[in-house]
Each structure stands twice: as C-alpha cells, then as structure tokens.
Amino acid sequence: MSIAGKHAVVTGGGRGIGRATADLLERRGARVSVVSRSAGVRGDVTDEEQVRKAFEECREANGPIAILVNNAGIAESAALTRTDRATWDRIIAVNLTGTFLCTREALPDMIAAGWGRIVNVASVAGLEGAPYIAAYCASKHGVVGFTKAVAAEYADKGITANVVCPGYTDTEMLGRTLANITAKTGRSERETSELLARGNPAGRIAAPEEVAEAIVALAMGAQTGLALVVPHPERSA
Ligand code: NDP
User: Fold this and answer.
1) Ligand 1 centroid to 12 CA: how many Å?
2) Which domains does the chain have, with CATH numbers?
C-alpha cells in the first residue's frame, strides 16, 4: 500500500529510532512531521495542551494526520525498592500517557478520512519482565495493551493499530543504559554490550534502521493488533 503524500507524525523523531523512522517514511513519499521537546515541532507528549498545539501546527504544515508513530520514550533503571514515586510517574507519563494523548489527538483526522495507521513503539520489556526496570516494563506492557484496545475499537473504521517491540537498539538511550550498568557493576562497556546482545532477540543489538523498517511496514500494511518483536530472531544483520 502506498503512503505517498500521506501526512505522518513521528513523536521523538529527532534522533534514534524515531529519526530513522522519519527518514524512511520520507523516502517512501510521506509528508513527515516530527514532534519532540528539542527537534521539529516542539512539544512534550506528557502535556495535554502542548500535544494539542503541536499537532495543530503539524496539521497546518502538512494537512490531516494519516499516520502516527508514537515513538517518544524514556528509560530509567533502579531496584524496585529504590524506585521513587517521581521516577515511576515520569516513566508512565512519557511512555504510556504520552502515547494515549497523541493517539487521542490524531484519531479524529483518521476517523474523518476512514483511513489511519497507528504504530506504537514498546519494547521486548512490553512482553516480558526483567529486573530493575519495573516502571519501564509496566509502561511498555501498558503500551502493548493500549495498542490492542485501539485496534479493537477502530477495526471497522479503516484504522489499524500495531506495536513494535524492539530489543536493545543502538541509540543514545542504549548508550546511557550501557554507561549506567558499567558504572554500577564495574564491567567494561564492551562486556556489558555483549551481555545485552546475548539477551536480545537474534542475539545481537538491533540497528535503528531495522526497527524503522518494521514500523514503516506496519504503517503500509493492513494488519491490526499485532505486537512485532524486532529484530526477528530468524533474521541476520
Ligand atoms: P532516544 O533517547 O535516542 O530518543 C528518544 C526520543 O524521544 C527523542 O527524540 C526525545 O526527544 C523524545 N522524547 C523523550 N521524552 C519526550 C517527551 N516528554 N516529549 C516528546 N518527546 C520526547 O531513544 P530511542 O530512539 O532508543 O527510543 C525510541 C523508543 O524506542 C522509545 O520509546 C524507547 O523506549 C523504545 N525502545 C528503545 C530501545 C533501545 O534499546 N534503544 C529498546 C526498546 C524500545 P527530546 O528529548 O528532544 O524530547
């Protein structure tokens, strides 16, 4: 299915997975708006009013929103007993509430057009548990559940909702995770990286471009309600 000329909004599209996705959508002919706190149209996805204004600015530039990629996210780790309320709230606010606010803002355009594509970015931590990331894990499980609910609610309106679940991916977020684990465990960054790669689907760190490929494939397809693990365990680099 062609997405040429369609308006796609990518949250957190200034770097990492979001940037790779915005670039690929553009190469497929979409008109792309990026929303983040520091690049593209400025907006914090946790703030209802900022989301409303940012999406309005995107519409003024590129027309009604046909494709939404909820990619903006943050990750922090700590033992559960050392996870304070502010950390919990921050992670849920960006990863889960931000996804809800942006989806609610874009849906009326898609309903009016009878066509829409929503692709959310969760994580393998949205499908299974891991130590020291309870808040992140809860937020990403929430994103998976939210996506399936949206898929069910809008299945008869020409709107699909799917979620990609990447393993560790080579971005600034991974750089911060590596530095954090290295500082806490005394392991070298290389050892830590190898350890994380072994626990990843396919046994290696993913490239942002291959996560972007999965996101764009879902935006161009007709499937709905899928949770897709990336990189696929059977695909080599
Ligand atoms: P980066 O930290 O490289 O990029 C995150 C993006 O989100 C930035 O563009 C950032 O822009 C934006 N962002 C963060 N907070 C907000 C906010 N409150 N409002 C608007 N934008 C915001 O991360 P990645 O590219 O690695 O991650 C992208 C997504 O992929 C996230 O949802 C992450 O959880 C998920 N993911 C990443 C994995 C990895 O190993 N890298 C693995 C699995 C999932 P700015 O700071 O300018 O607002």
Assistant:
1) 6
2) 7-167+207-235 (3.40.50.720)
